[in-house]
Amino acid sequence: MESTPGSPGVQTSEGTEPAGTGAGLLRSAVRRDIIDTLSNLPAGQRHEGLTAQELSRLVGLHVTTVRFHLDRLVAAGLVDGHSVRSPGAGRPSKRYVAAAGSFEAARSDSYATLASLLAEAWSARTADGTPLAPEQAGAAWAHARADDLVARISSTEPAATARAWLSKVDLVIDVLRAWGYTPAVRTHDDGRTVDVDVVACPFGELARDLPEVVCGVHRGLMRGALEVLGERDAELSLTPFVTPTLCTAHVTTRTRFAPRGGIS
Prior knowledge:
By secondary structure, the chain is α+β, with helices and mostly antiparallel strands. The protein has 11 helices and 8 strands.
């Protein structure tokens, strides 16, 4: 990742800032995550909003980074900020809410990405001349962007430690964020197994009607990213609609980890 021009120390997931329009800003997975988080707060809290500090804890980013993205989203009219006076003395706190229609804009951008992938899949062919299946199309999308992923790791050998394995899983999560998903991660089995919870899938309505397409692409994105990162033998499964708004992917490495104190 690179420092954003004009804002030393602020990290973004893109080397070049997109155009300052709402649609352009939402090319950023971080900004879509912020919009999605604000849009999916409980009803009462949604109108009150969150401070930058509260939001930073939810999206897992430094508060300075979150403030930078919030400023851009406010300027584009996608997020509204308002001051709330605290009890007693002290400065008012600034809270942020998703502007009307901003979640729909983020979801529209995700649908455009899905439509583009499926169009490419239809024109591509397997060895026997048939169009790619959705899972194959998702994997192909990740493979086509292999250089971006591989540039962010030190080795494409299967991870030999929990630290190296989880670093690769983090990159898979970045791929999901780029598609508009909002993943939360849980680990167990000493880091060998990762559960990736996806709340409020951007394709939720379509997934209910066509799970073989949407869930197939979702699995393919994760599978393709793991393959690109050298984890071809990792076990991957996806359980859709664990609850009406939650799907969970399970990823486990089959590679034995080096004893503690070995190479990382």
